[in-house]
């Protein structure tokens, strides 16, 4: 993992299997019929906004034909937390690297999602609204065994259900990050490494809750360390002389909260944990859906086996921050197998469908301009022809359902009733 928690990657001991093979000419490897079926289902969802989905019966591609590569990037950061690129620049970078689906997962904030969506509409990339939530895992009265655990939350095209509750939940964590950064600065000052709050706040940027990476960058600028890695290895590592905690919720509370607000909960970088088995065992009881088992250097066998043992999804992402250097994986560098992506969407799409239904039902109950703008800030689709979002928000959202969910997902009594209610709102207005 990079950024807020700098942990060196373990090598062969973790069973890392590098899947990269040198290409020496010849044709592309053909998919099996099972892989093609998964590809067709995934591409139907990825290309919902296209006039003709390549997975309809008329356009389905035979199993033995080469197909467009669908690159999923499920772990990335922007300047809204501890990344170096703006959301729009991140999306552009992802596009250059062939990414088709990007999840922006800034630490404890969803504030970068609207900008990412705006940029994605220009580059033809699909955005999964995400967030990496800082939590604390405790094994009882022995506080020495406590350790920070990060949980990735993946939400629907319309963002989380109960957005106000999510915003309050994340705001509380961000407030704790400010206090935590101040405590780290105090500890560094006591270690005769003078650092000012203004330096860290300037690096973090206006309104951004500072993390360890911002403190580390300030240390480099002040000349206290030669580079970021040295700042972490000497002072800011978990339990280090300048380490501090904030007001993180318990890991199990965060997982449960993600599930209650229409999200998919995935354990981030389990290789950074002291006892990943204990963490997975506990969090599975509270609804954990998956763990990261893939990195840019391949699948980690130990964590793939751990996922299998507890019936969890196997995902992964680059954890891209945009800082450059040999230690960072490039955005889009993780090769997620299509079967793994398919399994992820099989679990996620029903959850997201229920969340979208709840969001729209809430709008039907409280059809305010504020609620409409909130939905559009996450689910900002390409403008439906012939309908003005401002004048007919109900009709607009009714038509946009086909961009958020597949026809199969919306062709049921629940969504038919929602469409009628949305149309009625537009008529009344």
From TrEMBL:
<dbReference type="InterPro" id="IPR004013">
    <property type="entry name" value="PHP_dom"/>
</dbReference>
<protein>
    <recommendedName>
        <fullName>Polymerase/histidinol phosphatase N-terminal domain-containing protein</fullName>
    </recommendedName>
</protein>
<feature type="compositionally biased region" description="Basic residues">
    <location>
        <begin position="17"/>
        <end position="30"/>
    </location>
</feature>
<dbReference type="InterPro" id="IPR003141">
    <property type="entry name" value="Pol/His_phosphatase_N"/>
</dbReference>
<dbReference type="InterPro" id="IPR016195">
    <property type="entry name" value="Pol/histidinol_Pase-like"/>
</dbReference>
<dbReference type="Pfam" id="PF02811">
    <property type="entry name" value="PHP"/>
</dbReference>
<dbReference type="InterPro" id="IPR052018">
    <property type="entry name" value="PHP_domain"/>
</dbReference>
<feature type="domain" description="Polymerase/histidinol phosphatase N-terminal">
    <location>
        <begin position="72"/>
        <end position="137"/>
    </location>
</feature>
<feature type="region of interest" description="Disordered">
    <location>
        <begin position="1"/>
        <end position="35"/>
    </location>
</feature>
